[in-house]
Amino acid sequence: MIEFQAVTKRFDDGTVAVDDLNLSVDPGRITVFVGPSGCGKTTSLRMVNRMIDATSGTITVDGNDIRQSDPPLLRRGIGYVIQQAGLFPHRTVVDNVATVPMLAGWPRHKAKKRAVELLETVGLPAELGEKYPAQLSGGQQQRVGVARALAVDPPVLLMDEPFSAVDPVVREGLQDELLRLQDELGKTIVFVTHDIDEAIKLGDKVAVFRTGGVLAQYDKPSELLARPADNFVASFVGRDRGYRALGFLPASGLPIGELATVELGATAVDARSALRDGWAVVVDGARCPIGWVSEKHLATVDGEISRDSSLSGGSLYDVDNGSLRSALDAALSSPSALGVAVDSTGAVVGSVTADDVLSALAAARTAGEVPQ
Amino acid sequence: MTWVFDHLGLLGGLTGTHVYLALVPLVVGLVLAIPLGWLASRSRPARAVLLSVSGLLYTIPSLALIVVLPGIIGTKILDSVNVIIPLTIYTVALLVRSIADALTSVPATVVAAATAIGYRPLRRFASVEFPLAVPVVIAGLRVAAVSNISLVSIGALIGISGYGVLFTDGFQLGFMTEIVVGVVATLLLALVADALLLLIGRLLTPWTRAGR
């Protein structure tokens, strides 16, 4: 879909931003360019729509050499999401999104109608359409930026550190939203970030750049974690690499143990008799976990078990599509050392232990499922 | 007051001329200052040259310029161009800096985003960069408009009639009323022009006032 062939960018002052880059971006997938500042990741991205022209080498999009195309026309066919959204402050949200189809020659009413549809696609209420960008939160502005990039349904989307300026909680929401959108749309996305965790979360493939514009490794995230090409990649990928790699191993074979449960509103006496090895999970009417009670803790509870009187629990492990990482974390973060396993509706189905996770890991390693 | 009512015809004519002599330089000056301001916002050397030249132009005394100019450009002594050209020069001198600063302060991400979605440079300037500069341009125009309205009076010294004629006549005849009327009329006109520009600015930039 997008091919870099021996691409080099040397700026006028002599600095080499990108050094002999050879890379092929898979169609319909998210490819993340990641690296420290000055590694050429943004320059590489901006060469795709000729915001920056390569000094030498060839870039093709869909088989066509981009040097043969008129830059403004090339750009109208490629979605672009920039840092801090880059919205036009003097235009309403709808007009911001409608700008792109109108540049492509759509009539105004059709462009506006499309813009309103897109706001819904990116999860924004329609009434925000008549507001100006300054009236929106950072996260909302960024969604408008994505809507604008999608406006003429381009096959390729370039995203230049789009989520770097929003706070971590909002960023996580935007990342999840992007993955959900991508499930529906199947665009070819090139995403630039300096955040390796974001790269590993979003990327189907990740290209790690090192300072000086050299591609250090281009691989699936699981491979990057399991087999970093060199010390630079290993240190860039960072701490807890082994633990994070568990996130790419499915936990399908993991044994699910029994778990004692107590319904909200049960008396302390009933709760005491339900304990198993001194612990029980408090559940609501839909069997969703609320927290824990223990023998020691129950001694302090009078009357009924409520939300307030239960101990807060750890993370949950989803038996349908959880990874070994989420199972292990559920066990490690639980006050009882038993991880709470839930089904897709969020109802408690049983427990997992750290020992079981490690056994499953050993089994997966023997079966050759763990990259070595 | 009776003098005013007796001379409504004269005052109407003077007002028309005065507005014409102040407005034409304002419009022509704006049209000239936009490309110059753009140039100054684009290149550092151009900025240095344009801003110091426009600063210098503004320091030329208006009376000297109005008196000397016909000799330099060869216009007839009573031609209204003799007033229009100096005032245009002052307008350009005032606006070039405003426009250059306003264009420089358009956020780089906004310009990059406009380029990335496929605007060609000229259309990008007209649709994105200049509209964002409008609040500053209006502020510059308000200063230039008031300054022009006040300077037009000097034209009376070389026989170009505006409210200035009221001053020259009043002095020659020792007739105070006429002078006071001239001052009040100039003031009123300046206030009206300022209010109109303020209104136009508000209509053009609803986005600057949108609250959260």
Quick overview:
Chain A is α/β, with parallel strands linked by helices and 372 residues long.
Structure description:
The complex is a heterodimer of chains A (372) and B (212). The longest helix of chain A has 18 residues, at 168-185. Chain A is built from 14 helices and 16 strands. Chain A folds into 2 domains: 2-242, 3-Layer(aba) Sandwich (Rossmann fold), CATH 3.40.50; 261-364, Roll (CBS-domain). Chain A has 372 residues and is of the alpha/beta class. Chain A has helices at residues 41-48, 71-76, 93-103, 108-121, 138-149, 168-185, 196-202, 221-226, 231-237, 241-245, 268-274, 295-298, 324-333, 354-366; strands at residues 2-10, 16-25, 30-34, 56-61, 64-65, 78-81, 156-160, 188-193, 205-210, 214-219, 261-263, 279-283, 289-294, 316-318, 339-342, 348-352. The mean pLDDT of chain A is 90. In chain A, strand 1 and strand 2 form a beta hairpin. The two termini of chain A are 30 Å apart. In chain A, the strands form 4 sheets. In chain A, strands 6-7-8-3-9-10 form a 6-stranded mixed beta sheet, with helices on both faces. In chain A, strands 2-1-4-5 form a 4-stranded antiparallel beta sheet, covered by helices on one side. Chain B has 212 residues and is mainly α. Chain B has a single domain (2-206), classed as MetI-like (MetI-like fold). In chain B, helix 4 packs across helix 5 (81-104) and helix 7 (121-152) packs antiparallel against helix 9 (176-204). The longest helix of chain B has 35 residues, at 8-42. Chain B is elongated and about 65 Å long. The mean pLDDT of chain B is 88. Classes of the chains: A alpha/beta (372), B mainly alpha (212).
